[in-house]
Each structure stands twice: as structure tokens, then as C-alpha cells.
Amino acid sequence: MAPPFTALGLVADEVASAGGRVWIAAQNMSHEGAGAFTGEISAAMLRDAGATWVILGHSERRQLYGETDEVVAKKTGAAMTTGPRPIVCVGETLAERESGATLSVVERQVRAVVALLARQPGFGAIAYEPVWAIGTGKVASPDDAQQVHAAIRALLAKSSEELASVTRILYGGSVKADNAEGLLGQEDIDGALVGGASLDAAGFGKIIEAAQRLATQAEQG
């Protein structure tokens, strides 16, 4: 669960009191550990608030606030060093997709952080979120999403087979109850980064049920 900064501590306390395997994530953080950076939120602040994960490089951070691959890499490096554990977002715009640049854009973004993720294989995760599908109701087909996820995993494998096998690669972009199972059933899609659909408790519950159903089937062979 990734609530706003102002609710992190409260949500973390509620989750802890309820028990179960639910982790709290922040939606962003500074790459600076300490110093005179008024308004920034450091990794230590997030840990103190109860966050164990942090979303980095979300498309809105890249598109609206000008975060470059270099900035995202700095934040990823900080997270890999001290925690919270990073979920690094990558994805192409509609113009990039229509020009056939999807894989080159995503691979560029992954290359910026792959060496950092390789420091502790499995500590960080990657989320593929095509910008054109976020909050628009549009969604990549399961086959299209799988193609990009497979390319990401292949790129991780160039660093090490261990990194490729233990890194969770999530899909984000208009994931809903009616498409979750098709997406999550793909070989290289390990989970979902759910945005707007998480605000509908009943629909979000169905996404969780689909994920649980697939996980149970996988365990049973």
C-alpha cells in the first residue's frame, strides 16, 4: 500500500495492528540522505514512518516534474544502500509507442538502474507502466505487456541470471478486475502496480483474488 506522505505513519500503524503480510510504500523520496533540502523526504524519514518500499521514477514524476534517468538512478542508489526497497518505474509515452520506440525507451530506463539493482538481487523491483495507459482506461494487451516484461528480464539477465530470476517485474497501467487475471497470468509479469482501481475496494479485492488464484495454481504445479 502506497499512501500519501501525510498518511504513511497512520496507515503503517493500522496495518501493523491488523497483522498479515502487507507492506507500506512511499510514493517518492529524495536521493539526499541529510542536509538543508527543505521540503524533501529522506529515506530515513520514510523508514521512521513505517515505509519498507518506495516507488521511484513514476511516470508522473518523470513527465510532470522532469525527473531524468539520472535522477531516478540517484534515488535508486540511495534506496538500495539504506532502504526503503525501491520499485523503479519505467515506460513509454504514446508518441514513443506509436513511433515503435517502446523497447528502446524501456531498455534505456532499465539500463540506468540495472547495476544498482544488481548490488542486492531481489531487493528492488521494476514496474513497467506505459504512460499512455495510466488512468486512461487503455491497457496494454497481455501479449504486449509480456513482450516488454520479457525484454526487461532479458536485460537483467545480461547482468546476472540471479538478478533476472529474483527481481519482481510488475505491470501498471489501468489494471482492473476484468483484466487482472489475463495480465498476471503472463510468464514474466510478477504482479501489478495498481493506481486508480485501488480506490474501488470491491474491484481491488477482485484483483487481489485473481493474483491469489494464480499464485495458488502455480504452487500446485
* Low-pLDDT segments, ≥5 res: none
Mean pLDDT: 95
Helical content stands at: 40-55%
Count the helices. How many? 10
Biggest sheet strand line-up: 1-2-3-4-5-6
Q: What is the general shape? A: globular
**Quaternary form:** single chain
How many beta strands in the DSSP annotation? 6
User: SSE order in H/E notation?
Assistant: HEHEHHEHHEHHEHEH
Q: State the distance separating the first and last CA atoms.
A: 29 Å
Can you put this structure into words, describing what you see?
The chain has helices spanning 8-18, 43-49, 59-65, 69-82, 94-98, 102-117, 142-159, 161-166, 180-184, 201-219; strands spanning 25-26, 53-56, 85-90, 125-128, 169-171, 191-192. 35% of the residues are buried. The model has no long low-confidence stretch (mean pLDDT 95). Strand 1 (25-26), helix 2 and strand 2 form a beta-alpha-beta unit. Helix 6 (102-117) packs across helix 7. With 221 residues, it is of the alpha/beta class. The protein has a six-stranded parallel sheet. It contains ten helices and six strands.
